[in-house]
């Protein structure tokens, strides 16, 4: 005997799958290992695609039924892709049992294949178009016959002629109904066989009742038949379904868009020099792939041969193509712009960074917000309430008001059609998907679907300093007293080292600096170079054996912070001081948040004078210096205890405790850091404008969700009483039902239409944030870098 599995929308429990059902799954799909992902806690995630999903109620049915299994900890179905992810304990349940459960519910689990997904959508669109054409043809012809009947009623048409016209109408309408109604009938029949209901059950019931009543009236040679209503009703329902699908395609998820960037085939360079096309899943690390110009890079790897420009905007956030050469890492999904490349494979298929980002995005889109619980609760009661209301309408009008049964039934049909919960079911998910897509286009990755909801509620913003408000890269403080030749010679020595201060000195010297030969590096101390005039040394004060009160040549620079000294034979040493510059748009972003009423705080492990200088430059009054990571954690906890709703913007790799303590956390990160950072939101590029964009998107999304709920409830509050009172025909009910879903989706799409207005200066922050108006107006403000007592570079 199988276990009990929950049906949809208050449907009775149905018996779960037995051994034969699980064996059938094994026979259909074979080994499931390719679709299983091991989780760190020992659980397994089943990753597949589900066919047969028609509405939000289907998603709720699948998730609730799977979660009834005690071994299942998570069950999520993606609105856009139909992708299913079930996390379960492999010691307590087999994946075949879970798939068999879906089969029992009337859904079919298949391997996730984006190409097959798109092909299936195309086929469904073609089927809908054919059904619409048939229903439209039938509706037009039946309507002409009905006009003749109506006209004949007032011209003493004989019963035989009227009955003949009704039979002709039946010959046109009945085949059209059974053909054009298949998208609804098949879905409803599958649901009923599985012991559940969906939105297509009352729709099918309404169409069949109207058609059946018309056939009955024709057999009785009655005066009235309703073939015109039945076929035209079906025509409008199909139009609404088709427009609804088109609207949903506009809201296609960011995860699906990214999956579309994945290669379907990889050109592998074999040892004998020949080329062979292989599936991404068959490519292994260490192989060499060939990527012609104009093609997307199919793997993560390292360039072995060739020089080209690569558009890696999606990964790095940079809007301009990046020059690559041998030894440079490249990522799957990037476009090879100008010349062929040979690349050594580091990761392919599901192991690429592109696949990882897509998984994170999909998880964010599937995460449930608090508003979804409202929609799910309403959808759960939908079927019994609708059927009860339709029955009550018939009883009221037929028995209570004495209306003829035909007219009472038409009112009942109108109630069945007009009370569709699709608008309510779509109110939240479609907004969430569009918000994720919009942010992804702007170089912002949501790692938590509830992050938008939490971000919209914040009233306090806490910034880390180094690497967040500042660029996190040392910059040489201009020293007007230093001889340019001395700077270039020191840079020639520094070119032999990879130390950040050495690289900053080389960058400040300008292009054309030639590395000097025979430079010896003393690890942790400095560099030595034997010139014609004697020994040159570049490094710390201790390495040069200078006294603490040593005076540099020309007095030097008094800026506190990191420094290196340059000692030349017979001359006073030169001190090179370094500073950390603010991000170009930091001041503009902070000012905009303050204008919005946000309380701004700055936390750093740096010295008091350095943090005070940064706070002053940005107009931040609340700041703390020399604060350890534990201190940051306590600071955030104190804010939460005081009733504040803080967001923290900091380094997601080093400040994990503080980021976790905040209501929501944001972090700048390179592409390689995305999967490792502890933040809820990760943004690309060298600007802070994404923080502002994410906040505005969160507020916009929350407003649109509330509007969608208001629209859905208003629709039902107005239309259902009107239908019950007999003021709405089945045709008007079909138009209203379809329009409600389209209006909700159209309202959500406004989230993706808005352009600009969020970044400082009123312009769109743009992909990669390299063209924000803030950076165009503001010059980098130098802030000296100091030591961090906690030892954390990001403090």
TrEMBL record:
Domain HMA as annotated: residue spans: 44-110
GO molecular function: ATP binding; ATP hydrolysis activity; copper ion binding; P-type divalent copper transporter activity
Compositionally biased region (Gly residues): 756-765
Classification via Pfam families: E1-E2_ATPase (PF00122), HMA (PF00403), Hydrolase (PF00702)
One Gene Ontology biological process: copper ion homeostasis
Membrane topology of the entry: Multi-pass membrane protein
Region named Disordered: 756-795
Transmembrane stretches, start-end: 131-152, 164-181, 201-219, 225-243, 381-405, 411-435, 709-728
Subcellular location: Cell membrane
GO cellular component entries: plasma membrane
Keyword annotations of the record: ATP-binding, Cell membrane, Ion transport, Magnesium, Membrane, Metal-binding, Nucleotide-binding, Phosphoprotein, Translocase, Transmembrane, Transmembrane helix, Transport
Main location: membrane
Family from the record: Belongs to the cation transport ATPase (P-type) (TC 3.A.3) family. Type IB subfamily.
Protein name: Heavy metal translocating P-type ATPase
Organism (species): Pacificispira spongiicola
């Amino acid at each position: 005997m199988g276990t009990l599995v929950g049906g949809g929308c208050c449907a009775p429990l149905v018996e779960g799958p037995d051994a034969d059902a699980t064996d059938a799954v094994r026979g259909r799909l074979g080994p499931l290992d390719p679709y299983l992902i091991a989780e760190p806690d020992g659980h397994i995630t089943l990753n597949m695609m589900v066919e047969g999903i028609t509405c939000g109620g289907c998603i709720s049915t699948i998730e609730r039924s799977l979660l009834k299994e005690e071994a299942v900890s998570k069950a999520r179905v993606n609105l856009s892709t139909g992708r299913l992810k079930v996390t379960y304990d492999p010691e307590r349940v087999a994946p075949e049992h879970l798939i068999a459960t879906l089969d029992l519910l009337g859904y079919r689990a298949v391997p996730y294949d984006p190409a097959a997904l798109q092909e299936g959508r195309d086929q469904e669109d073609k089927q809908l178009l054919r059904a619409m054409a048939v229903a439209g043809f039938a509706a037009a012809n039946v309507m002409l016959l009905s006009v003749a009947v109506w006209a004949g009623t007032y011209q003493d048409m004989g019963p035989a002629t009227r009955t003949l016209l009704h039979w002709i109408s039946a010959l046109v309408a009945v085949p059209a109904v059974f053909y054009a109604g298949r998208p609804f009938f098949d879905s409803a029949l599958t649901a009923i066989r599985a012991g559940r209901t969906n939105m297509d059950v009352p729709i099918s019931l309404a169409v069949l009742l109207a058609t059946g009543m018309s056939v009955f009236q024709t057999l009785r040679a009655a005066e009235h038949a309703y073939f015109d209503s039945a076929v035209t009703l079906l025509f409008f329902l199909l139009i609404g379904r088709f427009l609804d699908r088109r609207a949903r395609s506009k809201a296609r998820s960011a995860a699906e868009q990214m999956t579309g960037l994945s290669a379907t085939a990889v050109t592998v360079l074999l040892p004998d020099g020949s080329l062979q096309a292989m599936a991404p899943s068959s490519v292994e690390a260490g192989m060499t792939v060939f990527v012609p110009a104009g093609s997307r890079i199919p793997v993560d790897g390292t360039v072995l041969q060739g020089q080209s420009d690569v558009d890696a905007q999606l990964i790095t956030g940079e809007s301009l193509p990046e020059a690559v050469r041998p030894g440079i890492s490249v990522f799957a999904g990037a476009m090879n712009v100008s010349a062929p490349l040979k690349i050594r494979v580091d990761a392919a298929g599901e192991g690429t960074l592109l696949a990882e980002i897509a998984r994170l995005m999909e998880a964010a889109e599937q995460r449930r917000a608090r508003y979804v619980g409202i929609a799910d609760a309403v959808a759960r009661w939908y079927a019994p309430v609708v059927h009860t209301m339709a029955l009550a309408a018939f009883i009221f009008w037929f028995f209570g008001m004495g209306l003829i049964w035909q007219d009472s039934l038409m009112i009942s049909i109108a109630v069945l059609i007009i009370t569709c919960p699709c608008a309510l079911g779509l109110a939240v998910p479609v907004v969430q998907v569009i918000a994720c897509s919009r942010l992804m286009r702007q170089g912002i990755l949501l790692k938590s679907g509830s992050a938008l909801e939490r971000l919209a509620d914040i009233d306090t913003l806490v910034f880390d300093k180094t690497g967040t408000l500042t660029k996190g890269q040392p910059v040489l403080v201009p020293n007007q007293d230093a001889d340019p030749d001395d700077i270039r010679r020191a840079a020639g020595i520094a070119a032999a080292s990879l130390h950040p201060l050495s690289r900053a000195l080389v960058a400040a010297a300008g292009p054309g600096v030639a590395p000097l030969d025979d430079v010896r590096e003393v690890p942790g101390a400095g560099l030595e170079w034997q010139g014609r005039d004697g020994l040159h040394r570049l490094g710390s004060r201790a390495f040069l054996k200078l006294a603490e009160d040593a005076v540099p040549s020309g007095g030097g620079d008094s800026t506190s912070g990191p420094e290196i000294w340059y000692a030349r034979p017979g001359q006073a040493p030169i001190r090179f001081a370094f500073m950390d510059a603010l991000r170009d748009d930091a001041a503009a972003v902070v000012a905009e948040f303050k204008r919005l009423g946000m309380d701004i705080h700055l936390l750093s492990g740096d010295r008091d004078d350095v943090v005070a200088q940064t706070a002053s430059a940005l107009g931040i009054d609340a700041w703390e210096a020399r604060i350890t990571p534990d201190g940051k954690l306590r600071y955030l906890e104190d804010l939460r205890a005081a009733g504040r709703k803080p967001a923290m913007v900091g380094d997601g790799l080093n400040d994990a405790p503080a980021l976790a303590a905040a209501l929501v956390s944001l972090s700048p990160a390179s592409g390689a850091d995305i999967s490792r950072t502890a933040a809820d939101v990760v943004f690309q590029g060298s600007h802070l404008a994404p923080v502002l964009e994410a906040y505005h998107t969160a507020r916009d999304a929350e407003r649109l969700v509330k509007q969608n709920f208001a629209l859905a409830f208003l629709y039902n509050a107005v239309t259902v009483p009107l239908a019950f009172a007999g003021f709405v025909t089945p045709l008007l009910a079909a138009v209203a039902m379809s329009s409600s879903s389209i209006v909700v989706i159209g309202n959500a799409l406004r989230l993706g239409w808005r352009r600009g207005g969020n970044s400082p200066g009123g312009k769109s922050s743009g992909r990669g944030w390299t063209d924000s108006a803030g950076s165009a107006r503001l010059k980098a403000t130098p802030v000296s870098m100091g030591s961090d007592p906690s030892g954390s570079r990001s403090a």
